[in-house]
Amino acid sequence: MNSRIPRRQFIQTAGLGALGGAGLALSENRAEGQSPATTDQKPRLLVGCCAYSFLKYLEAGKMTMEEFILKGVELGVNALDMTTYWLKSTDTDYLLSLRHLAFKNGMPFSGAACGPDMLQADKDRRREVLEEIKAWVDRTDVLGASHLRVFAGRLPQGAAAAQGLDWTVECMKAACDYAAKKGITLGVETHSGITQKADTTLELIRRVDSPYAGITLDITHFVGDSDEDKYKQIEACIPYANQTHIRDHFDNHDPLDLDRVWQMFAKAGYKGYMSLEYQGREDVMTAAPKLVEQMKGLSRKYSSV
Question: I want to staple 171 with a disulfide (CB 3.0 to 4.6 A). Which of 71, 116, 118, 216 is the partner?
């Protein structure tokens, strides 16, 4: 089966007017090695938690990454996403100590995260970002995780969207080639900038064209004419999601129907982590346990876990 889709055909399929079928069109036209990892449609929706949920405590020095690991154990989640901004060191010995602590507490790492933007107009800066991502791939490997979250970024003033996509593809393709050597998958987050539209994000993944490229699907950041449009964009990206970040409201503060979200992931046969990335008004120490319990209930309802 041909692994590539002609650009015009992809754009027509993945345009916002037909987003519900974009992921299906991709999966039907990619080679076996490039398609979502399994044809088994039985969902496996695991509950995770991102360190970013505890931003206020980590930034203020009121929580360490060791304490975050133990908090994950207390919450009873299946795995932790190690947002790496608050690591006290990137030395191998320190990373191995976190890996050992997590293992001794029966807590896998669902992935790690790094911050540099791949969308860079300057070629030298793109090379620098690529080296930064490679370094984080190595650190992710030391932590014992198999996934690294990366960012695309915003268009610089005066740059065309097509240019920005070209620059991002160049960087991510090379990064995936490196990550593949260690069995680590990169997930570009649907965050600010060019990935706030599902069609652009899907085009990026199509062009990178690697089994080690996917989407860190933050369900809250899409830009659309309505909340309904945003749900359609979430659904379009699910077949290429490696990791999912969960909040209970969109960026405009409209409430998000998590039951509907879980149904969409279950329908797509998603197997992976639904990781809480809390950013609400209530203190995370009281909000996270309630949301995690809600997420566990949804996972029992719509999958085998």
Answer: 118
